Amino acid sequence: MITAPHILIVDDHAEIRQSVTRYLQKNGMRATGATDATEMDRVLAAEPIDLIVLDVMMPGEDGLEACKRLREDRNATPILMLTALGDENDRIDGLDTGADDYLAKPFNPRELLARINAILRRAPPSVAPYGGSFAGKRVVFDGLVFEHDASRVTVPDGSQNILTTAEAKLLTVLLERPREVISREALLELSAGRSAGPLDRTIDNQVSRLRRKIEPDVLRPRIITTVRNGGYCLNSDVEVQE
Predict the structure, then answer these.
(1) 149: domain range?
(2) Does some domain include residue 130?
(3) What tens digit of pLDDT does each residue of 145-160 get?
(4) Which of 31, 61, 161, 168 could form a Cys-Cys staple with 21, CB 3.0–4.6 A?
């Protein structure tokens, strides 16, 4: 039986929270509202959530702090961040703290639904791993081990890093095409299912975050290399293990 995805909307603005909840429910999803990060934590502890819509501006612990805390606690639930219109810093900070995507307020509910569906297509559902050529497998590259279903990378010293959904999908795309130069536009399309807008820095930010988790020296990256006027390349051979 296919279960409708369960979306958690965290926003202290009651009208926005309730209208988004109703809209998602009308479009076949389960939706639960939370007024702040504390209530968000209670919901997450009580039941599986497939995606969190998280507002940046909230009293108490704001959305950026909540997102960072969830990622530090190795919670890989996909997060779509709601930011103030035109506030590029909030968007960049949201991606840097582990959000999978962002949407500026005010927003069209249809675009919100489209963004949620795009994230869910590449995200692990709450009861099963997401698909792809590496589902259920371990991928070895440059002395690292990527466990696809757990979104986890083990580095040579034995320590482990949990990847966000966006980071795991980006790494999967690169691992599926080792030593191939892939443009930023193609990486965004393959990993996020959307086209790049003008001055879109999403892939650059995600590559930077991913490098911090897999590169021995982030200042001199050698695993994911930048190709001038080309894009990015996974500079390693890849071995897939069952």
Answers:
(1) 138-241
(2) no
(3) 999 888 899 999 999 9
(4) 31
Q: What is the CA radius of gyration of the chain?
A: 18
129, part of any domain: no
| C-beta neighbour count of 151 within 10 angstroms | 23
pLDDT exceeds cutoff 80 at 22: yes
Q: Is the peptide bond before 129 cis (omega within 30 degrees of 0)?
A: no
Boundary of a domain, candidates 94, 122, 150: 122
Write the CATH number for 149. Answer: 1.10.10.10
Query: Is residue 31 a contact partner of residue 24, using CB atoms and an 8 Å limit?
Result: yes
Is residue 152 located within the same domain as residue 205?
Answer: yes
**Pick from 193, 48, 196, 183: nearest CA to 126:** 48
Same structural domain, 117 and 11: yes
Identify whether the C-beta of residue 242 lies closer than 8 Å to the C-beta of residue 189: no
pLDDT tens, residue by residue, 87-119: 666 666 667 778 888 888 889 999 999 999 888
Quick check: 202 and 219 in contact, CB under 8 A?
no
pTM of the model: 0.57
Name the residue type at position 214: I
- Within 10 A of 112 (CB to CB), how many other CB atoms are there? 19
- Number of domains present in the structure of the chain: 2
Question: What are the E-state strand segments in the chain?
Answer: 6-10, 30-34, 51-55, 79-84, 101-105, 138-141, 144-147, 152-154, 160-162, 224-227, 231-234, 239-241
